[in-house]
């Protein structure tokens, strides 16, 4: 919450219109001894200080020929635009000559990175936040004031009095809140209440800050990039389908690429783009996709992107709830279906499936459960409780799978809605051999289809032979010979960057579908598999059937986590054994 309170001396007007301003308003007394500390302001272009911001601007105008206020007015910059311009100049040490041809559509004027002051408490920003005003607006206000009649003037003054009274009440409220904040911090080591909590009686839950902060560190990105199945599948799809990218608008990763990330890793991404000479092709935008706008000229609502590429998948596919944001981007910016293109723009991946099976996992039981029964002679069985309540993220061997595979949820990314991401789905699993079921196993498959069409229900991820063994997920090497030519049709040839192929080779390429799996039969991915360890393992024989319902929804306490509930019953049809009663077990994916 933010409140802007402007406090000024307003005469008291009695019913007869007379001035009774002899009494002193207590608010005036509050501020009468206020003295502003002298500040020194640096020039925009030199390491030289001046006694005030206005003198610094005057120096820049006289010596460097850069009239900041004039340029800002010419470009139509609002307060935030002017702040970005100041910080852009200071951070990048731009010369005045480089700013002569600004058009107002430069990306940095819309980049929230430049809202952070380069100089702490920059007097130029502080002064401008007060003094930036439109002379034309002031002239209009004066003209209107001259036309106001005495009667109307009294009404306006009365309205101002009511506003002042409300402001005074807000000041009293803030003073009380301030005392609570100071008291809480001085007397307790517990969390200090937020202002909104004190005002509204409750604190708004924040599920995002920690999540985005965790992606601001490079370790997690190294893990994802080192996942060869993940990275090479995305690369193969893009490199095998140049017709999707040539002269096209691409989001998130050709005409232009917009890369969007809400975490601070966007700063390094922007530097990586610069270091590889791709600034004219890729624009990195930091911010939540629900709030950001594309820079001009792409902020025109009629302009849509042709491809949205996003690696949003989490554990159990839906953990982290990033798909919700991807669907927002799809609905805001993806080219809609048309007569010429029934599907419209393409999502990559275009479809994902959650797959479940029964699993025999005695090693996990030993590691997570029985270990705690005797820890150097001590009984610590209470420590094993979390293994039954929290889903385990493990990589299982193919032989751990003890049943057929069942599709729990099919997600056509081209058209699925956020409401459909909370779901319940019945399932039926048949044991393929005798054994003991210790766990339910969940993983996902992903498809990249060039035209965005649905894959058939019986589709399986592509199979390739690696080192003599068939495995799911195609794995490729990305070397200097792979890439997408950065040549535009209408703009003539451009320098070929390292790692690009010739346009002729692009023309020869046929649309190619790419898929991968995160199941036990695949090369291990950083997603591994999600394992739901059962409190009551049960024996099965070949042909035993396990039926039930799988419930999945966002957690009520953290929307980025998942609450899973599995209802199941076991029957041994044909073997004279009656079905067992329904068992219910709940899990959290977090």
From TrEMBL:
Residue ranges with Polar residues bias: 1-11
Region (Disordered): 1-28, 485-512
InterPro entries registered for this protein in UniProt: ANM3-like_C2H2_Zf, Arg_MeTrfase, PRMT_dom, SAM-dependent_MTases_sf, Znf_C2H2_sf
EC code: 2.1.1.319
Keyword entries, A-Z: Cytoplasm, Metal-binding, Methyltransferase, S-adenosyl-L-methionine, Transferase, Zinc, Zinc-finger
Name of the protein this chain belongs to: type I protein arginine methyltransferase
Catalytic activity: L-arginyl-[protein] + S-adenosyl-L-methionine = N(omega)-methyl-L-arginyl-[protein] + S-adenosyl-L-homocysteine + H(+); L-arginyl-[protein] + 2 S-adenosyl-L-methionine = N(omega),N(omega)-dimethyl-L-arginyl-[protein] + 2 S-adenosyl-L-homocysteine + 2 H(+)
Domain of life of the organism encoding this protein: Eukaryota
Subcellular location: Cytoplasm, Cytosol
Protein arginine N-methyltransferase domain sequence ranges: 358-451, 512-571
GO biological process terms held by the UniProt record: methylation
A single Gene Ontology CC term: nucleus
Any one GO molecular function term: histone methyltransferase activity
Pfam families, per the entry: ANM3_C2H2_Zf, PRMT_C
Record-annotated Protein arginine N-methyltransferase 3-like C2H2 zinc finger domain positions: 73-117
């Amino acid at each position: 919450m933010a409140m802007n309170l402007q406090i000024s001396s307003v005469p008291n007007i009695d019913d007869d219109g007379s001035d009774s301003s002899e009494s002193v308003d207590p608010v005036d007394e509050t501020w009468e001894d206020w003295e502003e500390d002298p500040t020194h302001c640096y020039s925009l272009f030199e390491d030289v200080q001046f006694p005030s911001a206005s003198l610094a601007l005057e120096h820049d105008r006289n010596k460097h020929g850069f009239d900041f206020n004039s340029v800002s007015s010419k470009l139509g910059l609002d307060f935030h635009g002017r702040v970005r311009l100041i910080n852009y100049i200071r951070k990048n040490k731009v010369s005045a000559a480089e700013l002569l041809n600004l058009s107002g559509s430069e990306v940095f004027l819309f980049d929230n990175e430049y809202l952070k002051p380069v100089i702490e408490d920059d007097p130029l920003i502080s002064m401008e936040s007060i003094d930036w005003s439109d002379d034309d607006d002031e002239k209009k206000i004066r003209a209107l004031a001259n036309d106001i009649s005495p009667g109307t003037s009294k009404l306006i003054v009365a309205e101002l009095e009511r506003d002042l009274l409300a402001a005074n009440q807000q000041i009293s409220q803030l003073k009380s809140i301030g005392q609570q904040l100071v008291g809480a911090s001085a007397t307790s080591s517990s969390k200090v209440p937020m202002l909104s909590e004190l005002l509204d009686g409750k604190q708004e839950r924040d599920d995002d800050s920690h999540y985005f902060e965790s992606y601001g560190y490079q370790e997690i990105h190294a893990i994802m990039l080192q996942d060869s199945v993940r990275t090479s599948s995305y690369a193969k799809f893009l490199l095998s389908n140049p017709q999707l990218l040539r002269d096209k608008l691409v989001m998130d990763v050709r005409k232009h690429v917009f890369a969007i990330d809400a975490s601070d890793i966007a700063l390094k991404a922007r530097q990586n783009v610069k270091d590889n000479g791709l600034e004219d092709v890729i624009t990195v935008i930091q911010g939540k996709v629900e709030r950001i706008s594309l820079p001009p000229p792409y902020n025109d609502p009629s302009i849509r992107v042709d491809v949205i590429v996003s690696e949003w998948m989490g554990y159990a596919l839906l953990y982290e709830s990033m798909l919700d944001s991807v669907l927002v981007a799809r609905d805001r910016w993806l080219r809609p279906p048309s007569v010429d293109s029934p599907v419209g723009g393409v999502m990559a991946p275009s479809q994902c499936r959650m797959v479940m099976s029964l699993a025999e996992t005695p090693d996990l039981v030993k590691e997570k459960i029985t270990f705690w029964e005797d820890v150097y002679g001590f009984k610590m069985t209470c420590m094993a409780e979390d293994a039954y309540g929290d889903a385990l993220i493990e990589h299982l061997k193919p032989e751990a799978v003890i049943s057929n595979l069942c599709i729990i949820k099919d997600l056509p990314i081209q058209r699925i809605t956020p409401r459909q991401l909370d779901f319940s789905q019945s399932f039926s699993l048949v044991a393929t051999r005798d054994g003991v079921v210790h766990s339910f196993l969940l993983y996902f498959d992903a498809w990249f289809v060039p035209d965005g069409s649905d894959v058939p229900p019986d589709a399986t991820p592509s199979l390739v032979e690696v080192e003599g063994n068939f495995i799911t997920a195609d794995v490729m090497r990305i070397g200097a010979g792979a890439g997408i030519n950065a040549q535009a049709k209408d703009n003539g040839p451009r320098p070929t960057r390292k790692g690009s192929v010739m346009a002729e080779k692009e023309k020869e390429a046929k649309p190619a579908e790419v898929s991968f799996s995160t199941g036990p039969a695949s090369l291990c991915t950083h997603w591994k598999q999600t394992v739901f360890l059962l409190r009551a393992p049960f024996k099965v024989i070949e042909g035993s059937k396990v039926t039930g319902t799988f419930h999945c929804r966002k957690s009520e306490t953290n929307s980025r986590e998942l609450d899973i509930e599995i209802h199941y019953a076991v029957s041994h049809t044909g073997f004279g054994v009656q079905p067992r009663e329904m068992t219910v077990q709940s899990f959290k994916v977090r």
